[in-house]
Amino acid sequence: MSFELAMLAASCVLCFIHIVLASHSASFQRGYRWTASARDAEVPPLTGTAGRLERALRNFVETFPVFVAAVFLVHAVGHETALSKWGAGLYFSARLVYLPLYAFGVPLLRSLVWNVAFVGIVLLLLASVWPDLPY
Questions:
Q1: Whether the predicted model's global pTM rises above the 0.85 cut
Q2: Which regions form coiled coils (predicted)?
Q3: Which distant-in-sequence residues (6+ apart) come within 8 Å of 19 by Cβ?
């Protein structure tokens, strides 16, 4: 398995971690009866850590499909280079750091880390179309 695909697999695990943390924190705040219900009733927005974990999950889900596509594109065209490895590594590492930063409500640094993950995706896309990019 290539490094890029390994980072994709690790990111899938990270996605599940996001889902579990967000859902359990929502259940702690709203109660497990709510979790087991049809959830038809209006509920107030989640607050505190539960709200931040919900927003972190939503943020992850916004970028993850683009990362998946970029990794598969690099793999499909056979352009797995140092640039694509950096891109995949940056994305996964930054998303891994982003989760606790968001959960603990750390401002500014969290946004900087988000940008590092974004750069990772850009590097993957550059590698897919320009494998001989001088770097």
A1: yes
A2: none
A3: 57
